[in-house]
Amino acid sequence: MGESTVKLTIKFGGRSIPLSVSPDATTKELKSLLQPITNVLPRGQKLIFKGKVLVETSTLKQSLVGDGAKIMLMASQGLHQGEGPVLKEASTRPISRTVVDQNKPGLVVDKNRADRWKATGVIALAQANLKEIPEEVWECGSAARVLDVSENFIREVPVRISSFVSMHKLFLQGNGLSDESIQWEGIASLKRLMLLSISHNNLTVLPSEVGSLTSLRQLDVANNKLTSLPNEIGLLTQLEIFKANNNRITSLPESIGDCSFLMEVDLSANMISELPETVTKLRKLKTLELNNTGLTNLPSVLFKMCLQLSTLGLHNTEITVESLRQLEGWGEFDERRRTKHQKQIDFRVVGSGQFDEGADKSW
To answer: Which residues form the Ubiquitin-like domain (predicted)?
Structure first.
């Protein structure tokens, strides 16, 4: 009777990853098992055993990989999540900012400045070396309309943020915030909030409370460690711009189709392998960025239903030009994107027929 499993050690990025798999598993199946552990897309993995690259369709038994075998994993440049292989213990780096002295005394707020905040409703404290939100900010209460405390060292967003009942824009990006740092029940009570930016932090969860922010027009959760999105995202029916690139998201909730005002969506550099059919309900969608993901196809009626779509980023995916041309509505989409960019589109087939939409990139 043959072995039911073999124990392997995968060497990757200075780590030793123990794994038990069936000897009848193929290299392709092994790569799929390694994806959630290493955050490297299967097509970006090269598995090497005894100096030879393991063949995709061969089983471990056929490749003579037995119990106790050590396999080296090499990640191809550009085929992993984000800007590099993301290890479980890795921390998300804040966005680039001027180096500041964390031992420097905290911000001193004079009366004139506090009065100006109350008069204008705009509190601008980006890159102010803050470790917490100053007491003078809280005193603005219902007068506050915009709060920018981005690129600081703030470690807590307390419940009392709910006192900003007139808040329209809240910038919290680049603070290294963790899931425990944010008291979401406070943010969820900001019923007038139209823009929320919490990018470049260390969040692993976007909680269901975000669905309470029904006035949101823009939501930026990019460059965190999110693995999923809550079903309540569909309650954001006024949302127009959604940025969730550079995370670890593996799938989208079907409720995304209820965000009927969405015009711009960026899901690049995630672990997504397919889109829900409900994406085709986004009739106002103009820009959809899906670069550097595990996608192999798109919903068959995407071009037919999303009649305003004119920018589609598919750089570094396995979606081919040929497969796109088979989709109903391709011709009309092609015409829209030609018109928008006012130049001939440039298709480049990279490697094994990958679709490269570099000509569509407008940033």
So the answer is: 6-77
